[in-house]
Design goal:
Number of strands: 22
Largest sheet: 10 strands, antiparallel
Number of helices: 13
Oligomer: single chain
Strand content: 25-35%
Amino acid sequence: MKKTLIFVLSLVLSGLAFAEYNSSNIPDSAEIRRSCADSWFNCPVDQIRSQKEKFVKNNIGFQFQIRLEEDDKFYQIVVAPKSEISIDFNNNGVHRMEKADVYPKTACGSWILYRDKKKGNCTKIVWYFNADSDVYLQLREENKKTFADLVVFGGFIARHVPVGISFEKACISSFADIKRLTKTSLPWNKVQVLPGQYKDSVAMVYQIRKNLSSIVHVDDACYDEKGVLKSIFTQEPYNFAALEEKDADFKADTKRRHYLSNSGFLKWIIDGIVEPAFGRGTRIDAMGESTVEFNPLSKNGVASQKWNLTFTLDWCRNLAASAYSAHTYRDVTYKTAGLDVNRNYFSSEVDGDGVRNSLGYIKNSGYEIRNLKSILYLLGIEEPGWFYLAAIRQPSQKKADDLVYKDCAVFFPYFDDAGRFGCFVFEGPREYSLSEFIANHSKSYVHLERVKSTQAFFLYEKR
């Protein structure tokens, strides 16, 4: 009878472990960490280097590697799950694919304990639980208490949240244990990806890409509500003769080509939503209507009397409101639509080994460009099936200290079937990676307007 109870209990416990693995969808190393705590976590710091890497399986047969890495300040005790990669061996033109085991320190399920090299104390745990390694959980010990941080691409969406257990207990707890302890105190919903919700956005990107080869970038050009090519600023038919005088090699082919500025490109996309609903595109003059009021005696107020400081901000806001009108079949304006992305997601940011305050959203300026990836990640989770018009506030060519809205872009964030984040970026008729876009605008701010993706999307095409 006693042996039977022990056998049943072992089945229940192994079943719970397997359930934990599936509920969190990451391999769990808690059992392994319990077995090596004395030899790796609690041993004198001068003995750590004598430890050799180990390969250990957890109670459901998933293999981990325990190893030591180090930098100038810390010993890093890495407990990493096994992954497989395919290697292409080329022998005189004969290819042979072989699989190899690897143990990446940032793989989903990897766990890293940091120990101070001089003092020997454990300072923090970094836990990778997401398909994107820049999204992770951090546990820190302060004054004999354990605090949790949730980090998304360099921004803290939660910081200094009490966990309620000792740091020693945290070192041997499962991910499911930590998640249960913080289920109401950490915003887990902001990092919980549900794939399969981005079909409309991907379909729109496919249609845009299909037409990119027909687009020629020219300044100040867009199509009006009837599909006639005009100047944005004069609203007169576009003057190709003047363009040909400046560029002897330029030859217009209005039957087979689109001629669009970056702003005209965004209007072309939004007209693909608006025209099917209303039978016409957006009016140029309406898209340029001002959305910002300056104090006439302020620096910007004086400058705005001579220059348009907010052109693409106004343009993006009015385009987004027009798309919202098409979705709802109601006539809405920028002020009534509420389409600005203006949430303050982060109180602080990772800055090397330290932390710095985040400026967050600034009215009529948007976000610092360095925060763009983390913001689009969170928007992709919270608002699946939306895309974003971006007005770029950048240093003026006439005076670098002055910031003006001159350029614009469009972002389509999404998650693939494996839960990995991605974003399609178009700045005019050119497609960029998100990293390239951020590097190109390193001194800028980005103001975002949300637009609902749709399969009722019909671009003005030329072949």
